[in-house]
């Protein structure tokens, strides 16, 4: 046993490993022996033939060994804790060096940390990231593999390994790494798509360049022309008109993907950086006529280079001068420059990958305000700007970026455009209002707009102006503003309560509009605005809203019917005059009974609610004695309806019907519906 303890303490790994194995064997044998002795003690009396002195000596040796084993485990745990503290300190030093761009020093610190703690996953992935910065891709892959041995579900390791394989043109292996990320965490789908798109683009770029080089070597005139034209632009100290002409010739030479690739591999994107005259003319704030011509020519060139080519689109946005100047060019006030800038940006905004490039390389915080200004333009710039905005509004990241300047920049401009509807481009304004309505899908944006008193005033002003004009463009503005108001009325605040009467009054005036779409939206806005104010309900009822809703319900239309019933539900909930008006307008409840048979449960639920509210009117319940209302309500209350609220509304209406006119109970008894009636009474009493 003494030899075993010495082996355990040995510095020779082989001797120590052998001692550990022997120790485990002895412990196992000791446990087996104890089990056998326990069994023997139960079954029979065993005579111990071992001399007592020998047994005591072995027990003492075993105890000493176990004590040594326990002591060693504690020392190792203490040593690991100390090493872990040192490794973390070295990791932080490495991270600090990495942030400063000292990648070699970062690798040294991470390596020192791994010497202290060899199974620390973060040190491997951090060192792999530093290796990637130094283009040592094979070493990065090896570190990622070690990280995965420490943690087989390490997403960062798979991400970095995918990057390294991509740099080595191992496209299949790169894709496999990114697929692993999605398997580990399905919520990383956006990251997965971005990574896979990067692999696809890189693979396509390499193939395009290889093909372009082959064609250039085969002596194609276009390939040679592009190279020669780029070389001419490198000549220093020429007049600006010389460079403008060269840029236009270059743009005309680029007709397909091959020429686009040749432009890229011949460093075409560095023409601004390498030519001070070009750069100065493009970036000048107050441009001369010659500088305007140059800027327009460059924008046309980049359109030719980037059309349908995602790699070129990406490279263009990575050029600092281009990225910085795009918003300035949009705000330049020079129509030719604005037109071509909008055309260039449209190449990005019209597809998902292009929009992602814009969001990644551009700070779009002020773009909503800049593009919105084009509503005042009378030419094609207005529609181009609105199309770009419409595309960008689909992206959640764009909505988030729009929040910051909304109250101080965007909303003042937007309200000004609404109040000047007759002076601006109405088609563009309608599109702009629709875009703002789409942005309201973002709760933060919707809340800010709904709390803007000036915005509500501007909307009401536009409703008043456009309701008197029947031109298609004004009607589109009207339709768009009603949609925006419907979205804003999803909020509830004091300002909405203040404007509820004016909003509902304007909508009531629009109910005679000849455009059915506008009438439907006006009823939708009415159904939401009335919920904010009892005074607005009273005013609407006085103006005959109930009779009008019954009229539209008779005409049919699912969406319109839904809004009409919501409006009636709000009015009849607390207004006795509305209840009486409904009984008078809908003789025998013929309209509501028909709606109770609808396949749309929202319509059924609201129809049942309105019916239940009106049964307090004297004679209302008696007018239903010869109808099948009991059977219909019983069917919905008994479980045919899937929505609990519909079942409840039907049950309440059934209970109120029998309370108001007990003769309905006979019909209910015939249909074995008394149990449902009893269960509905708790709802009746609570109402």
Question: How would you describe this protein?
Answer:
- It is found in: Cytoplasm, Myofibril, Sarcomere, A band; Cytoplasm, Myofibril, Sarcomere, Z line.
- This is Protein unc-45 homolog B.
- Residues 1-12 have a biased composition (Polar residues).
- Residues 1-42 are annotated as: Disordered.
- With 687 residues, the chain is an all-alpha fold.
- Among the domains are: 1-28, no CATH class; 79-205, Serine Threonine Protein Phosphatase 5, Tetratricopeptide repeat.
- Helices cover 78% and strands 0% of the residues.
- The chain has 39 helices and no strands.
- It has helices at residues 2-9, 13-43, 52-99, 103-116, 121-133, 137-150, 155-167, 171-184, 189-217, 221-233, 240-253, 257-265, 271-274, 276-283, 289-306, 310-317, 320-330, 335-349, 352-361, 367-372, 380-392, 396-402, 406-419, 426-439, 443-450, 453-466, 472-488, 494-510, 516-529, 534-542, 545-555, 558-574, 576-585, 590-595, 601-614, 629-640, 644-660, 664-670, 674-686.
- α14 crosses α15 and α35 (601-614) runs parallel beside α37 (644-660).
- The chain is flat, with a radius of gyration of 39 Å.
- 39% of the residues are buried.
